[in-house]
Design a protein that fits this description.
globular, binds zinc ion, single chain, 29 helices, 5-stranded mixed sheet, 21% strand, alpha+beta
Length: 896
C-alpha cells in the first residue's frame, strides 16, 4: 500500500543529499599545519586561521580543481592567500561552503570568521555551557568554528591560541601541550597550545572558564611522568576522585594488555553539564558529560561508578584506537568505535566482575542492537550510505562492531590477536585507515582467509543459527547440525552465509564436562572447550567416544552476535543453570527457563486464561539462593527476570500489555513463593551502618540485597522495609537510596511521594541527582506516569535545552517504560511527537535520538501501528524539520 499523503509531503521537504561509500575520493588538498586564534567575547568570538595548504599529489581531480571548504553558520570577514586579501570575485560563499576558485600548488591560507557560541543551542561546534566555553566537533562540528576541510582523512598539526578575559576565563585549554602564555591590556590574557600529533578537525577541542582542578600524575611504562588534570565545575572536585583512579587504571591496563603508552606530557579531562554525547576523545583534552565523570558514594550508584570507569577507559583508549590511528571516512566509524568499545568492555571485564560485565553487554546488544538490525533503520557495521552521519552513531556501529572485534579475538586466539593489534599500531600509526586495513592485519598475522568473515562488516541483520542434535548410543557419536539464515534488511534482500565462531562444551547429565573429540578438530588430544567455525548454510559436527547423551553448552560467553535456537529440555537447562563451567551460559540457561515461563504466561494472558506459574523455577531459584555461586553479583543477575524489551524481541507482534502483565505476575509469584528466603538474604546483607566501599565483592552484596528488596516490596506489607533503607541511606549511599526508591516509586502508597519529595529536597542542588529523580518518575509503572511526566516538563528542574534532562525524563519514559509509553489511546506517542518537534528547533542531534521509539512502529499490532504512524506523518509535515529527524522518519515510513 502506498500512502499518497506521504508522497506529496515528502516532495516538499528539503532534498537531502545521500553520501555513498563508493564515492569516496582522496582529498584534493592537504593541510599540513593549522594555526588557530580564538578571541572569545561575551557577544561573539573571532576565529582566525592560518593554514599551510598543498595540493594532494594523489588527488583524482585536475590541477585546476578549486579548494572547497565546509562551513556552517559562520560570518566570513576576510580570506587571504599568501597574505593577499581576496576580493569577493575570487571566491563563493554558500550556506555550507566556501569555494576558492584559483589557488596555487602550495600556499598559506588565512581566514577570519565571526561566530556566536552564546546562541549555539545545538551543542555542536563552539558553544556556551553555563559560564564556560566548550566544543564538540565530532563528527561535523569543526565546520561550525571555521571554514575547513572537515573530513577525518585530512590530518594536520594544530597550534591554538586562545584569548579571553582573565577574570571570567582563568583557564584556557586546547589539545597538546601548553607552550606560551601572556597578559594583555584590559584584563585579558592568552594561552598557546601546540599539539605535535597530526589530527583531523573532529578531534580539536577548546575549553575556557573557571574550574576546580584535581591533579595527579602517572608514570608510564617507559618511565615518563604524565601530568593528569581533571577540571570540573566549581564545587565538584570531591566527586572526581573516582575518575582519577579510573584514568590511572585505564592507562595501566592499556600498557599491559595492548602495549600502548600515553604520548603527551599532559592528559586533561573536563566535565561539562551541557553535552550531547557521553564523552569525547579530543586529543589530550577529553571532554565528558558530567554524568560520565562524577561519582561519590553519596551521589552515585554502583552502576554509575562502573559506568564512569568504563567511559573514562573508552575515551582514554581512543588515544590509540581513534586518535593516533583514525578513520579514513565516516563509513569506517566502527574502526574506532567498535574496536574501542571492545577494548573498554574487556577492561570492565578485567577490573570488575567478568561474567556480569559480559551479561550486561549482551543484554544491551539484544535490547538495542537486535531491534535496530531487524527494523527499517538496519544497516551494516560499515554502512554503504548515509544522509546525516550523526544518525550513524548507532548500536550497530558501536556494539555490534565491538562483537565483531571480539569474534576476531575468539577466532585468532588471544595471543595472535595481540600480535595483530601490535602490527596494526605499527603499520598505521599517524594514518586514517579503513576497516579493510584492520581485517588485513588480522589475516596477515593469522594466515587465515577472512574473506567470508568480512561479511560481518557489510551484511546487516542478525543471523539465526538453528542447532539440532542426534545421539547414537551404538556408535557413541553425537552429531550437532548447524543451519544458519539471516533475514532480509533494507537494500539487502538475500544474505550470504556468515563465519560464526561457536564456543562450546559438552556436559554429562550430572553436569560434568566431557572431553571433546571430533572429526576436523585442529588438535589431536581431547579438549574441554572448542571454538567451532560455522561457515556453511548447513554444517554437521560429529563428536566421538561419548558414552552418554550429552547436554551441549553452546555459544559460550556469547561468542557471536546471533540468535540461536536449540530445543533444550527443561531439565537440561536446569543442569546448565546449576553446573555449567561457563558462567555466562549458567545465566543464559536460567534466562531461557524464565523466558519459557513468561511466554506461556503471555499466551495465557492473550487467551484470557488464568495465569499460573509452576514450582519448577522457584525450586531452582531457591537452590541458587541457598547454594548458588559465591559471586553475589552473578547470582543477582541469575535471579533477575528478562526485561520487557527483551521479551518484546521474542514476539512476532509486540503485545505490550501481555508482556507487562506476564512479567509482573511472575515476579510477584517468585516474591511470594520465596518470601522468607528473600527476607533472610536481605537481612544477611543489609547493614545500614556499613560505609560504602567500591569493591567488586561489596557491589555484588548490594546488588543481591537490593534485588531481594525489590521482590520483597512487591508485597504490600514490606513498604516500611524500603522506607527504612531509603531514610538511612539518603545522604550516605546512593546505591541503597535508589535501590529503595525504585521500589517505592511503583507503589500507590503515600510513602512514594514522601520519599520522592525528600529526595528532591535533599539533592536539588545536584543536577545529576535531579536527573535520577526525573528518570525514576518517568519509569514508574503507575497509571498516572504520563501526566506526571508532562507536569515535570514544566518543573523548574527540567530544561529542554539540557540533553541530560531530556534523556532522563523524556528518554526514560519513551525508551524504558514500554508499558506506559505505549498507552492504548496513543497519548504517549502524541507527547513524544511534541517533544521531538520542540527539540528539533535547536538541537537536531538530540531530537533524532528521541524520535527512535516511534520509528519501530511496524513491530506493534494494527491499532498502535496506526497511532504511531500518525505521529510520524505529523512530524514529517513540520515545515522546518531538520535533516537528522527527516532521514529517520522517512526511512521508517518507506515501503518495505
Ligand atoms: Zn568512542
Amino acid at each position: 500500500m502506498k500512502d499518497t499523503k506521504l508522497e506529496t509531503r515528502a516532495a516538499e521537504l528539503t532534498p537531502v543529499k545521500t553520501v555513498y561509500l563508493r564515492d569516496y575520493r582522496v582529498p584534493d588538498f592537504l593541510f599540513d599545519q593549522v594555526e588557530l586564534n580564538f578571541d572569545l567575547g561575551e557577544e561573539e568570538t573571532i576565529v582566525k586561521s592560518r593554514i599551510h595548504v598543498r595540493r594532494n599529489p594523489e588527488a583524482q581531480t585536475g590541477a585546476a580543481a578549486p579548494l572547497v571548504l565546509q562551513g556552517e553558520e559562520l560570518a566570513l570577514e576576510a580570506v587571504a592567500i599568501n597574505q593577499q586579501q581576496l576580493s569577493p570575485a575570487d571566491y563563493q560563499v554558500t550556506d555550507d561552503s566556501l569555494t576558492l576558485f584559483k589557488v596555487p600548488e602550495h600556499f598559506e591560507l588565512q581566514i577570519q570568521v565571526r561566530i556566536k557560541p552564546q546562541e549555539n543551542k545545538a551543542l555542536s561546534g563552539l558553544y556556551r555551557s553555563g559560564e564556560h566555553f566548550c566544543t564538540q566537533c565530532e563528527s561535523q562540528g569543526f565546520r561550525r568554528i571555521t571554514y575547513f576541510l572537515d573530513r577525518p582523512d585530512v590530518l594536520s598539526s594544530f597550534t591554538t591560541t586562545i584569548t579571553a578575559s582573565e577574570a571570567r576565563y582563568p583557564i584556557l585549554l586546547s589539545n597538546g601541550n601548553p607552550v606560551a602564555s601572556g597578559k594583555l591590556a584590559g584584563g585579558r590574557h592568552w594561552v598557546r597550545w601546540e599539539d605535535p600529533f597530526k589530527k583531523p578537525g573532529y578531534l580539536f577541542a577548546l575549553v575556557a572558564g573557571d574550574f576546580d582542578l584535581l591533579e595527579d600524575q602517572f608514570k608510564t611504562c617507559s618511565g615518563r611522568t604524565v601530568a593528569l588534570r581533571i577540571y570540573v565545575e566549581k564545587g565538584y572536585r570531591e566527586q572526581s576522585h573516582h575518575a582519577m583512579q579510573a584514568v590511572k587504571k585505564a592507562m595501566t591496563w592499556d600498557e599491559e594488555n595492548y602495549g600502548r603508552e600515553y604520548d603527551l606530557d599532559i592528559y586533561m579531562l573536563v566535565g561539562m553539564s551541557d553535552f550531547n554525547m557521553g564523552a569525547m576523545e579530543n586529543k589530550g583534552l577529553n571532554i565528558f558529560n558530567t554524568k560520565t565523570l562524577l561519582a561519590s558514594p553519596e551521589t552515585a550508584t554502583d552502576d554509575d561508578f562502573i559506568y564512569v570507569e568504563s567511559v573514562i577507559a573508552h575515551e582514554y583508549f581512543h588515544n590509540w584506537t581513534g586518535n593516533r590511528i583514525t578513520c579514513r571516512d565516516w563509513f569506517q566509524l566502527s574502526i574506532k568505535e567498535g574496536l574501542t568499545i571492545f577494548r573498554d568492555q574487556s577492561f570492565t571485564e578485567d577490573t570488575t566482575a567478568k561474567t556480569v560485565a559480559r551479561i550486561r553487554d549482551v543484554n544491551a546488544l539484544r535490547v538495542r542492537q537486535f531491534p535496530e538490525d531487524a527494523g527499517p533503520l538496519a544497516h551494516s557495521v560499515r554502512p554503504e550510505s548515509y544522509e546525516r552521519i550523526d544518525n550513524f552513531y548507532t548500536s550497530t556501529v558501536y556494539n555490534k562492531g565491538a562483537e565483531v572485534a571480539r569474534m576476531l579475538r575468539t577466532i585468532l586466539g588471544a595471543q595472535q590477536f595481540r600480535q595483530a593489534m601490535d602490527l596494526y599500531f605499527k603499520r598505521y600509526d599517524g594514518q586514517a585507515v579503513t576497516i579493510e586495513e584492520f581485517v588485513k592485519v588480522m589475516e596477515d598475522v593469522s594466515q587465515l582467509d577472512l574473506t567470508q568473515f568480512r561479511l560481518w562488516y557489510s551484511q546487516a541483520g542478525t543471523p539465526l543459527l538453528t542447532v539440532n542434535e542426534a545421539y547414537d548410543a551404538h556408535q557413541k557419536t553425537y552429531t550437532l547440525t548447524f543451519e544458519q539464515t539471516c533475514p532480509p534488511s533494507p537494500g539487502q534482500p538475500t544474505k550470504k552465509p556468515m563465519f560464526i565462531p561457536v564456543k562450546m562444551g559438552l556436559l554429562n547429565p550430572s553436569g560434568q564436562e566431557l572431553p571433546l573429540e571430533w572429526e576436523g578438530s585442529p588438535v589431536s588430544t581431547p579438549v574441554k572447550e572448542a571454538v567451532l567455525h560455522i561457515q556453511k548454510p548447513k554444517q554437521e559436527v560429529v563428536f566421538k567416544n561419548l558414552d552418554v547423551h550429552p547436554i551441549p553448552s553452546l555459544l559460550r560467553g556469547f561468542s557471536a552476535p546471533i540468535k540461536m535456537n536449540f530445543d533444550y529440555s527443561d531439565p537440561a537447562l536446569a543442569t546448565l543453570f546449576q553446573s555449567d563451567t561457563d558462567q555466562f551460559n549458567r545465566w543464559e540457561a536460567g534466562q531461557k527457563l524464565s523466558e519459557r515461563c513468561l511466554l506461556r504466561l503471555i499466551t495465557a494472558y492473550q487467551q484470557k486464561q488464568p495465569l499460573h506459574l509452576s514450582d519448577e523455577i522457584s525450586t531452582l531459584w531457591e537452590s541458587a539462593l541457598r547454594q548458588g555461586p559465591e559471586d553475589k553479583f552473578l547470582l543477582s543477575q541469575m535471579l533477575s527476570l528478562p526485561s520487557e524489551r527483551y521479551l518484546a524481541e521474542l514476539l512476532p507482534v509486540i503485545d505490550v500489555d501481555a508482556i507487562h502483565a506476564a512479567r509482573e505476575f511472575m515476579a510477584l509469584e517468585l516474591a511470594k513463593k520465596l518470601n522468607s528466603l528473600w527476607l533472610q538474604t536481605y537481612q544477611a546483607l543489609h547493614d545500614p551502618q556499613a560505609p560504602y566501599r567500591y569493591t567488586v565483592e561489596e557491589i555484588g552484596q548490594r546488588q543481591l540485597k537490593n534485588l531481594s528488596l525489590y521482590y520483597l516490596m512487591l508485597l504490600p506489607e514490606q513498604v516500611d522495609l524500603g522506607l527504612a533503607q531509603f531514610t538511612a541511606a539518603l545522604t550516605q549511599n546512593m546505591t541503597d537510596t535508589i535501590g529503595a526508591l525504585r521500589c517505592l516509586n511503583n507503589l500507590d502508597h503515600p510513602a512514594r511521594q514522601l520519599a520522592l519529595d525528600q529526595f528532591y529536597t535533599t539533592w536539588q542542588q545536584q543536577p545529576l541527582i535531579v536527573d535520577k529523580w526525573l528518570a525514576l518518575q518517568a519509569s514508574s509503572k503507575r497509571a498516572s506516569t504520563l501526566s506526571e511526566v508532562k507536569k515535570l516538563t514544566r518543573h523548574p528542574a527540567f530544561d529542554l535545552k539540557n540533553p541530560n534532562k531530556v534523556y532522563s525524563l523524556i528518554g526514560s519514559f519513551a525508551q524504558q517504560n514500554m508499558h506506559r509509553f505505549h498507552a492504548p489511546q496513543g497519548e504517549g506517542y502524541v507527547f513524544l511527537r511534541e517533544c521531538v518537534l520542540q527539540l528539533d528547533q535547536f538541537n537536531p542531534i538530540v531530537a533524532a535520538r528521541m524520535v527512535k521509539p516511534l520509528v519501530e512502529w511496524r513491530r506493534y499490532e494494527a491499532k498502535r501501528q496506526y497511532l504511531m504512524r500518525e505521529q510520524l506523518e505529523l512530524i514529517l509535515q513540520h515545515p522546518k524539520l531538520s535533516q537528522d529527524v527527516q532521514e529517520l522518519v522517512t526511512k521508517s515510513l518507506q515501503e518495505e
